[in-house]
Amino acid sequence: MISVKKILLRTRRFLNTAERAWNNDEMEMQNRLGEPVRLERFGYKVFSQNDEDGIIEEIFNRIGVTDKRFVEFGVENGLESNGHFLLHKGWSGLWIEGSKKHCKTIQKLFRKPIEQKRLTAVNAFITAESINGIIAGWKGDAGGGIDLLSIDIDGNDYHIWNAIKCISPRVVIVEYNSKFPPTYEWVMPYNADYVRNYGILKGGSDCFGASLKSFEILGGKLGYQLVGTNLNGVNAFFVKKELAQNLFALPASAENMYNPPRHNIAYGSRHASSAYIG
Q1: Strands 119-123 and 92-97: what pairing?
Q2: Could you tell me which residues are beta bridge partners of residue 93?
Q3: What is the DSSP letter of 200?
Q4: Within a 10 A sphere around the Cβ of 32, how many other Cβ atoms?
Q5: Could you tell me the residue ranges of all domains in the chain?
Q6: DSSP 239
Q7: What topology does CATH give the domain 42-257?
C-alpha cells in the first residue's frame, strides 16, 4: 500500500513537471507572437472556427488574390466555415457537405449569396474517387485555378488532397492531427466509407487525418510550402512554392511550424452568428 506521503510526493513532482512544461509552452508562444513574419500573431475570428479568418487575410495580404474563389468541404451549416467571412468580402465559392440536414440549413442561412450565384452548396459524401467529379461539376470551375482550398473532413483529408487534380489552389488549409509530434510521420489508412467516431469522451477518435510532418511532405510533392499553423494546433496553411518565396517563416518544416493541441485556447467574436448577414 502506497503511503499518503509518497502520493503527495509524486503529485508534487507531477505538478512541478506540468508547471515547467506550461512555462516552456508559454515562452514558445510569446516568442512566436513576437516574430513579425510568423502567422500566429495575425490570427483572429470573425466567423471561422478558430483564428483562421485573420491568418487567411494575412496570407493573401502577402501573396495577393486573383479570382477570389474558394472550394471548401466539411463546413457543416457554414456558419463557422473559412468561406463565411470571404463571402462578406466579395468572394465566391463551392461548399461540399455530406449531411443532408446541414445542406438544407445552408440553403436557408445563406440564401442571399446562393441566389446571387456566389455560393454553390453541394450535398455529397467525399471520397478520393469522387472528389474531382464533384468539383468539376461546379459551375464556377473555370480554368481550374482558384485562390483557396479548405479541407476539414476529420478522416481522409490527406488522401483527398492528394487526389485532387481538377483545380490548382494557390493556398490550401488542412486540419492536421496535432497529437503527433512534428518529427513523426503518420497517415490514417484510406477508407472510403470512414466517418470519425465522436463518442469517445465527446472529443472523438484520434484516428483522423495525418501528422503535420506527413502533410509537410505531401505538400512538398504537390508543389506547396508549409507556411504556418494555428496557435491552438488545429489547421496547417500551405502556399504554392513559387508564391511563398521568403514571405513566410523559414525553415518551412513541421519542426518549425508545429503548434501542439492547446485546448485551453478558445476564440470568440462576441456575438454568435445565426445566419449570413452580408
Answers
A1: parallel
A2: 70, 119
A3: G
A4: 17
A5: 1-33, 42-257
A6: E
A7: Rossmann fold (3.40.50)
Residue of 190, 222, 220, 233 whose CA lies nearest to 208: 190
Per residue in 253-263, pLDDT (tens digit) is 999 999 999 88
Q: Is the peptide bond before 36 cis (omega within 30 degrees of 0)?
A: no
Q: Which amino acid is at 107?
A: Q
pLDDT tens digits, 108-157: 999 999 999 999 999 999 999 999 999 998 865 556 789 999 999 989 99
Backbone phi and psi for residue 147, each to the nearest 5 degrees, phi listed first: -85, -40
pTM (whole model) above 0.85:
yes
**What's the distance, CA 249 to chain centroid?**
18
Residue among 91, 87, 89, 90 nearest 106 (CA): 87
Contact (Cβ atoms closer than 8 angstroms) between residue 129 and residue 192: yes
Place of cell 503518420: 186
Distance CA 61, CA 232 (A): 22
Are the C-beta atoms of residues 5 and 16 closer than 8 Å to each other?
A: no
Cα 217 to Cα 46, 53, 167, 179, 267, distances in angstroms: 31, 25, 20, 18, 29
